[in-house]
Design goal:
Length: 400
């Protein structure tokens, strides 16, 4: 059979540890046999980031702006232990943070629902899509340790020299402070991404912050969402029969648990980080969630929502068999290939992406699955397989 041809390359961002191992197997078993893959390869593995002083991460984000679609493997965000383990020159920043700072935008995460894996929250019959603002707040924060008594102030000096000043705290003892920011434009594009995605998928948008406590910072998010909605989306939402609903963050978590799903939950950057892991786990597994960063200019970066699965990697290094779930990484590939196909008007590529996802879901529904799913499935005949055999089982289906 002739392989599917591509016209424009994908930006391929390789990563670390167990997901790097899966990345290669996925390419060998599920991509190369079917597609004449055109990709511009960037090695975001920690060793190479260290060698290039992290320039490779910036280059890969810039390439995403050039080509429009990227697929990313999970990567290590170094901490003190990693600096030692990899003998790093510096504690390099989170690659996802760096890429998101270049591309701006919103990350959409939705559970991959399969028969036999029931959500822990039994009334969640439909997927909940998290829309995570991918710019600013604590991820672009600056922090200080306060060594002892003294006054901490928040100062803004305008270009014209005008100064705004607030006292943060009059310290009588050691402590900590933090400064963070966001940009009105980024918040506006976050709102627009959510409302556009809602119209595309015919789902309502729920948004929540802590505006009662954070009367300027969070309140600005609330105000911008409201303005953008009233101005450009209200009529379209009415026509589509969907709604925009705003409430407080603590109220929304209670409503989410009581709901049936089927809406987009817009979250500020930190809320989205925390809540997407909660949601993924509650729907079954961290590895059963898709994740895509959509920039305001329409660039797309597909990734898995989980990390590099370090514990499994060390077992793999010891020569032990692993049963790591590759579904989210496979869906990162299928998502990127589908989007590439849509942008290039390449029907074969779009069809392949659909078939790859179907083969993956059918494999699990036929009872072949990795350890994390075997532990929670309602299928009494389910069979646990190792990391590689799971991908091979998908390949057999895809070939059939
Ligand atoms: P993790 O890699 O997501 O793994 C945490 C645990 O969740 C695993 O030990 C495993 O549980 C389970 N798990 C996650 N993904 C799984 C999969 N595909 N299949 C089966 N089980 C899975 O998080 P972490 O261990 O906290 O972080 C490891 C590294 O990943 C860190 O260096 C962190 O910086 C990085 N990270 C990267 C990203 C990203 O690039 N997007 C996101 C988060 C974290 P069991 O061990 O119980 O089987
Ligand atoms: Mg996270």
């Amino acid at each position: 059979m002739a392989k599917i041809q591509m016209t424009t390359p994908l930006v391929e961002m390789d990563g670390d540890e167990m997901t790097r191992v899966l990345w290669q197997i996925i390419k060998d078993e599920l991509i190369y046999p079917f597609i004449d893959l055109k990709s511009e390869y960037y090695d975001l593995g920690l060793e190479h980031r260290n060698e290039t002083n992290d320039q490779v991460t910036i280059d890969s984000a810039e390439a995403t702006k050039k080509y429009g679609v990227a697929v990313k493997c999970a990567t290590i965000t170094p901490n003190a232990a990693r600096v030692k383990e990899y003998n790093l020159k510096e504690m390099w920043k989170s690659p996802n943070g760096t890429i998101r700072a270049v591309l701006d935008g919103t990350v959409f995460r939705a559970p991959i629902i399969v028969k036999g894996i029931e959500p822990y929250v039994k009334n969640w019959t439909k997927p909940i899509t998290i829309a995570r603002h991918a710019y600013g707040d604590v991820y672009k924060g600056v922090e200080m340790k306060v060594p002892g008594p003294g006054k901490a102030e928040l100062v803004f000096t305008g270009e014209d020299g005008t100064v705004q000043k607030e006292t943060i705290y009059d310290f009588k003892e050691p402590g900590i402070i933090q400064g963070m920011h966001n940009r009105s434009k980024s918040i506006e594009s976050f709102a627009r991404s959510c409302f556009n995605y809602a119209l595309d998928t015919k789902q309502s948008v729920w948004f929540a912050t802590k505006d009662t406590i954070s009367k300027k910072y969070d309140h600005t998010f609330k105000d911008i969402f409201r303005e953008v909605f009233e101005k450009d989306y209200k009529e379209k939402f009415d026509a589509a029969g969907i709604e925009y609903f705003y409430t407080l963050i603590d109220d929304v978590v209670a409503r989410v648990i009581r709901s049936n799903g089927g809406y987009i939950w817009a979250c500020k950057n930190y809320d989205g980080d925390v809540m997407s892991d909660m949601l993924a786990t509650a729907y079954g597994s961290l590895a059963m969630m898709t994740s895509v960063l959509v920039s305001p200019e329409g660039y797309y970066e597909y990734e898995a929502a989980h990390g590099t699965v370090q514990r499994h990697y060390y077992q793999h290094l010891e020569g032990k068999e692993t049963s790591t779930n590759s579904v989210a990484t496979i869906f990162a590939w299928s998502g990127a290939l589908r989007k590439r196909g849509q942008l290039d008007d390449n029907k074969e590529l779009v069809e392949f992406a659909n078939k790859l996802e179907k083969a993956t879901i059918d494999t699990i529904e036929s009872g072949i699955m990795t350890k994390d799913l075997k532990a929670i499935t309602t299928d009494p005949n389910a069979k646990q397989v190792n990391s590689k055999d799971f991908i091979k089982a998908i390949r057999s289906r895809l070939e059939a």
